[in-house]
Amino acid sequence: MENLQWTILSILRWTTGYFRDKGVSEPRASAEVLLAHVLGLSRLDLYLRHDQPLTPEELSRFKALVRRRRAGEPVAYLTGHREFWSLDFKVTPAVLIPRPETEILVSSVLEVLSLAATGNQQPVTGLELGVGSGAVLISLARELPRSRWLGIDLAAGALKVAWENAQTQGVADRISFLQADLLSGLKPGPHFLALVANLPYVPRRVWEELPKDIKEYEPRAALLGGEDGLDLIRPLVNAAPGFLLPGGWLALEVAQGQAPRVVALLEKTGAYEQITKIPDYQGIDRVVRGRRTGF
User: Fold this and answer.
1) Max Cα separation, the chain?
2) Would 225 disulfide with which of 7, 185, 201, 245, CB 3.0-4.6 Å?
3) What is the CATH code for 8-71?
4) 263, 268, 274, 279: CA torsion to nearest 10
5) Tens digits of residue pLDDT in 194-252
6) Which CATH class is domain 95-292?
7) What is the pLDDT of residues 247-276, one digit of tens each?
């Protein structure tokens, strides 16, 4: 690498091949995102400036990131950013990296809350449990300008990242954050029109087989949901009606294959109706949504 005059295109080609040979996931995208980060360009700009040479300092910084990516460190932690819902979010190893499929959770909540907000003089009130980076909560707040939200997470580091993202996205005045273990820090009562959660749901057997860049770098507590993945979802389904307004909605992201069991949990309580499974971009039932009875 040292004896060549590397251009943007030549180093992209080399790095993509190197990552592919080493078994790095998404080799082309990884190379593009890391190089764009080093150069302060968009991924499109890389190709518009394909013959631009790299300075020694740029090459040195890029090589350092390539080594870390080769070792398994996720791209989002290397750059400190992740796009979600067409917004830019800060991410650190304190939070789970937002996934595209989680946008289904946002859209499923917007589908019902947008109707509730129409003609309603009172602000929509919502709660998210396990806020992580704040991507879901902040995206909802941005889409519903008159809504107010409470975000709860047990991890202080995650709450710090979420608060910074809320400030960056201009919604910090409509979001409050609380460090607590799920609903333990709240007094029951009909407080919220929506309760949203992307809780740890990975079953232990699946956890053991996760790729290195997930299992060894992302927070275990944000992923592992016990033997069947439902250790936190099960009690939440039972407790949520005590915090939802009549006609309020519970929306949960779930793992592949879990939706039928989660639907059964909601049905067993007798506290929900209009229970729906919502598929993600791959056709996997990703969200379970139900409406609190009694309205």
Assistant:
1) 73
2) 201
3) 1.10.8.10
4) 0
5) 999 999 999 999 988 888 888 899 999 899 999 999 999 999 999 999 999 999 999 99
6) alpha beta
7) 999 999 999 999 999 999 999 999 999 999
